[in-house]
Request: fold
Amino acid sequence: MRENVCRSWVCAAALLLAATTADRARGDESVSQKGQTADQLLAGRVVDPAGKPIPGVRIWTWQTDEDERQGSEPRPLAITGPDGTFRIPHIQPFPFLAACPPGWLYAGKQVFGSGPFPELELRLQPGLRAAGRVVDASGKPVAGVLLWAKHEGRGGGGCVRITVPPPCGYPDQGISTSTDAEGRYVFESLKPGWVEVSVSAEAEHSRLRRRGEPGGEIAGLDFVLTRTRVSLEGRVLDPEGDPLAGAAVTLETVLPEEETVTDEEGVFRFAQVLSGTSRLEVSHPDHGWIRQDVEIEERPLHLDLQMPRGTLLQGRILGPEGAPVEQVFLSFGKDYADVAPDGSFRLTVPPGEYEISGTCFRPSGKVRRRLTVTGREEGIDLDLRLARPGTVRVRLTGLPPGDPGKIDLKDRSEEDGLSFGTKDGFHEIDKVLAGTWTLVASDGNGRVFERRFEIAEGETVTLAGIDFPPLPAVRGRVLDPAGQSVAQAQVTFRQGNREIQAETDAAGRFVTWLRDGSWTLRAERDGFGPAIAAAELSSGTPVELPDLRLSRLVTASGRLVGVAPEVVVPQVQAREGDAATGPWATMEPGNRFHFPGLWPGTWTLTADVDGQEVSTTFVIQPGDTAVDVDLSAEEGAPPK
Reply:
């Protein structure tokens, strides 16, 4: 089954599958067939590509909601016999069956109807095995390191990502595993072709790409960590200096588990911690939390930590009508409080400045409040009421053609959840809390006008219109290398972070409206290199710019050298000047690449070779039609 399917009937079927929660009987080895008629039984067999039966294959389907809530391990519906066959009851409408034994790629099928059912065949394809080892800088194995593997360096896209019954997974999606006590890991069932394996910890190579055949194995995918492993222990005390038991301690660079809990003496221990900077968090329901960066040196470390005096925040949050509402989201900065059905909440926080944010959607309501906690309070009682938000409207006039303008609220919080739109010629901001605000209107040229207003709970406020003064027209023409007019060329004007675009007409002419100042122009059209110029505008008068002449495209070709035969480098990127992005070229046999669409200027080629970037810079001169440039991955190659 394909990973992503965009036909509407498949999308609908996937959603129906996800919503199906009917009872599903299952067993560790097989499912009892007592009471099932022949029409109600599903019979099937699992075979290899040649049609030969595969015994001992577990057949999976979805877990029940109760199993998922309890975190139960998936259990198979059946296991194939010596002849590769299995029989199970028809357990639900639209059952979905899957098989994913080690060494074989996932296969699954969906069954429609109520019976009788034809025999179901799951034909498995051989997978690819990839294995390796993770060691530290001294060569000792490292346990608990997380690794990922994915096919062709990417996951799939599409309208719906259809999940599959655990423990199966699609071969195109990234899968993960961890190293054992000997630092070894293995991916049993990867999709053949070239695969990418990456490691979560800092290593000499952060990822390795190799190619493998169906039924084959890629061995020796080894990683050497650049950080040293040390032990870390510490003690957590309460605000009075007594040992604090039951505090959760989390550290980012711990192997294999990131979290532990303090014992009766307030002590915690991590056997393996990677050196360097790591984020530490200690939390306790009665004392709040500590969050800080810890510098771990290359030797065992002991930490003594004392919790600050926490303050209990408690109260109720009610809806706009003064009664509890469902699905209230209540946050204190980055932390959320659980809200009971009656609207009550309790949360212990350390000293600090907090922005309290409450939101509900049915009915619509919001509340915002700022709170300072010093740690000297015995407790703080909070009674919060969600208010009905309002709407502010304003009409913007005088804007240049094609510039819709925009509005916002000054000094608003990113957590305000405002809604922006236009209606009946007005710009609108919805979900505005009651209070005094400043509306900010701006255009693409960066001109700004402010308007102060007050809004009551649930009110719609219409402000007086904001009129932008007219701007002078800026005109010009775009020509090809032969001097002919170019239609549908894109002309971009940049001034700082501002960007305004225009398009040429059939005569190659363009017009836009700009404020005074220094502007950079870039004209582009498919099939040509860009034309770049600068313009200085002043005195607010119309301007006719000199013609912008596009350049001929140049082909850059070369070879990636110094790469071992087993290493896969899928692509090379070319970037012009200091651009952050640029075109990609797919690597051809012999590690050759071609860029047929470059233009005069300074370029940088980059490639990812086993997680390390290699690069080189070259120049295309005006008048060049082709250039040759090699990219070297060898040690001692010219620096980037």
